[in-house]
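Thread: "does anyone have the structure for this chain?"

Original post by V.I.:
We have the sequence but no experimental structure in hand. Need at least a predicted one for the grant figures.
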Amino acid sequence: MKKIIYLLATLSLLLAACGAPAQSPSEFDINDWDSVLAAAKGQTVNWYIWGGSDSINAYVDNFYGKALKERYDITLNRVPLADTVDAVNQVLSEKQAGTDPGSVDLIWINGENFFTLKQADMLYKEWAQKIPNAKLVDWENPAINLDFGNPVDNQESPWSSAQFQFIYDSARTSEDELPRSYAELKDWACANPGRFTYIAPGPGGFLGTRFAKGALYEVSGDAQQWLSFDQALWDQHSPALWNYFNEMKPCLWRNGETYPKDESELVNLFANNEVDLSMTNDITGAGRWIADGRMPATARAFVFDNYMIGDFNYVAIPLNAPNKAAALVLANLLLEPEFQAAQILPENGFGLGYAIDVTRVTDEAALSALETAASQLGDAATPASDLAKSLVGDSAAQYQGLLEQDWLKFVLQR
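Reply from O.Q.:
Generated one for you, tokens below.
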């Protein structure tokens, strides 16, 4: 009997030892970056990212894909999306099905899509200020720590910045003719019938939504009031917004009966001399399109005197991400000064602004690269002083859907 008890006790210890192995290679301590790097080695990071721009896709593959493999032995799997909401729905579907781990490691995200996943408690928490390059981010800046008015709460890390601008061709429109407010734009459009249109607000038409929000700010007389959601405020001011667009509608390209669905379609109209203004969020202004051969060298960017919405965009890690360590390494890589410098140059095809505060960069070579890149934007870009003067933040996320739905109802379908 004693012999049986001894054997059972020995077997129990052996089983316990088997059931309590040393830390798995896929596990890590977020406060120990070396352990993150060790866990990430050999992983594949599934980055779900809007795929509507060939030049951005190439930039991601050529810069981050190569660096991840060469420096960290991480494979980048870029998963292109027609709209970021597709990734959000994937994560929410996996939550409902109890799938853990899921399939999404990292999402290029902001605004209502971030808000949706945060509300669903499906985001990895307390990481964004713990990656090494977080020290280069000005987390005290409300434009960074608030995403469409919603606190970031260390659940996403910035990648780049963007601000709404217009593009004109200086060879056919003189600078002193340009409108400098939404009110002036309506007058300009009706003085030049058929020569202006805008992107339809809605999924895939982000620039059109942003354009319409700027108009909302102007007709309501203030931008700050839209940082938090207030249904009564929307009900009070939205009728004036639809009046603005409907008054301008007969002056638009094709009398406002149809609208370009995205930036690329509007660029085609501009390049074909069908309209005189295009739109962009690009820090290079018209530079990327000139580099791509889709706009003439005389294209230039400009802004109104006020209500030019700008923000930061981010990456977030789902709570059920299968390769969190690799996602953390990629998020940190996005903030490396060398890649921040590369992303604003027109020839690289990304064209969004810095997410880091260059005054926090202490390495002289890295700081020089950032300053040199900024100096190379040239005449096709909006002057930095004009961008700063006109900058306002984006509205609370809940207004996004309201605006897009009501524009269809009160403008397009009217």
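V.I.: this helps a lot. The CA atoms of residues 258 and 412 lie 8 Å apart.
O.Q.: and Residues 1-24 have pLDDT under 50 and may be disordered.
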